[in-house]
Design a protein that fits this description.
This is TraD/TraG TraM recognition site domain-containing protein. By secondary structure, the chain is mainly alpha-helical. It contains 15 helices and 7 strands.
Length: 407
């Protein structure tokens, strides 16, 4: 009996972790796409610029460790695919810049980091990691950075790492004040190899960032309306627009809440109302013999509806992206590219909130496992709603057949 309880507790813990993994925005962007939107191997061969926004603080340490490992493994796999080109001179270099690199490497796994850096560099993918100091990397990994990595750039004065830096460059006669006196944005210290030879530490003057180019002066153009391909898609579009209107109304009612909180609240409220309608329709049609079957079939129908909404949202976003490319640019370059990237490869936050909410509601976690003393957790307050603030579920338009009989 005890073993059964432990197994159940482990399964519940796994469910909670998966819910948190899929529920994060990063998880939704990586998991909730119908297909991969990027081929890193092709990007390296074509010298494409790829920007990945990954903020570990917003998704938690557990999710950050998982996604960080997944992203780096994808990059390493794409790097070794360059071996298909047998002539090393025909392999394009592809630098990889990682901000706050200490968030993605573990000090206790220094050998893995060294292996990744040296092997990918031999394939033309050089890692440039930005961090505040060697002390963030740990003693062993910091030593690898000083002795193994090909280059280094010191952009401001450091005190915690002064002794290590002085010892590393003792043959150049550098003193502690040479490192602590570096003025940000006025000077920097750099080291890089030339013809496989270390040229030592050199002083340099950083280049000034060019001023941002303003957007061209063009009158705004009206966006052509998106035309559904079929009556069924028109009904899905009307449902999607009703949900989006519900979000706008909820944001106006709760201006102090984050949009992500409102997305979850609207999704839970709408799915609760829709689940009741689908259960009633299935019960009236005699398509289930038990309450559990009614509930499971209703959630399956709801998940099918969410996939239809995702499809029409993707087509509408592609339509908007094509119009954005064709019309004259009226926004600054960075905003224009961000908007274009979101429409081409982004995910609909409300659709993802509905997707995750349906998974959580269809496969609920046994909250009794949270109350075990040996796990150090307290049970959830039964009076507290997991869906967030109370919102009015948006009405689902369409003929009675859509509202009463699930597909």
């Amino acid at each position: 009996m005890l073993d059964t309880f432990r197994i159940k507790t482990s399964i519940d813990s796994l469910k909670r972790r998966l819910t948190g993994l899929v529920g994060s925005e990063t998880g939704q962007r990586l998991l909730c796409q119908p297909a991969s939107t990027i081929d890193l191997t092709t990007a390296m061969r074509e010298q494409a610029i790829v920007i990945m926004k990954f903020v570990p603080e917003t998704i938690g340490a557990t999710n950050a460790a998982f996604w960080g490992a997944a992203l780096f493994q994808s990059i390493v796999s794409a790097t070794f695919a360059q071996q298909d080109e047998t002539d090393p001179e025909q392999r394009w270099d592809w630098p990889l810049f990682v901000d706050e690199v200490q968030m993605f490497v573990k000090a206790e796994r220094a050998e893995d980091a060294e292996r990744m850096w040296t092997r990918t560099r031999s394939m033309g993918v050089g890692l440039i990691g930005a961090h505040q100091g060697l002390n963030q990397l740990g003693e062993k990994l910091g030593g690898i950075v000083l002795n193994v990595i090909g280059g280094m750039c010191l952009t401001s004065g450091v005190r915690d790492d002064t002794r290590d830096l002085v010892n590393a460059y003792a043959n150049q006669g550098l003193q502690p004040e040479d490192f602590t006196g570096v003025k940000p944005r006025e000077e920097l210290l750099i080291r890089f190899p030339v013809e496989r030879r270390d040229m030592g530490l050199m002083s340099a003057i950083p280049r000034e960032r060019p001023p941002e180019q303003p957007a061209p002066a063009h009158p705004p153009t009206a966006r052509p309306p998106f035309t559904p391909a079929s009556p069924a898609e028109a009904l899905d579009l009307a449902t999607l627009e009703a949900l989006e209107q519900g979000v706008r109304e909820a944001l106006a009612t709760h201006p102090d809440l984050l949009p992500e909180t409102v997305y979850r609240a609207v999704a839970h409220a709408w799915l609760s109302a829709l689940h009741q309608e689908y259960r009633a329709a299935l019960d009236a049609a005699g398509r289930a013999t038990s309450a559990s079957q009614l509930s499971d079939q209703a959630w399956a129908a709801i998940q099918h509806l969410i996939e239809q909404l995702r499809a029409v949202a993707t087509r509408r976003a592609q339509h908007d992206a094509e119009h954005l490319v064709q019309r004259p640019r009226t926004l600054p370059a960075d905003q224009h590219l961000a908007q274009l990237s979101q429409q081409r490869d982004g995910v609909h936050p409300l659709i993802n909130a509905c997707y995750v909410a349906a998974l959580v509601r269809r496969y609920p976690t046994d909250e009794r496992s949270l109350a075990q003393p040996d796990r150090g957790r307290r049970p959830r307050d039964s009076s507290r709603s997991p869906a967030g603030p109370a919102v009015t579920p948006p009405a689902v338009p369409g003929p009675p057949a859509r509202r009463q009989a699930p597909p």
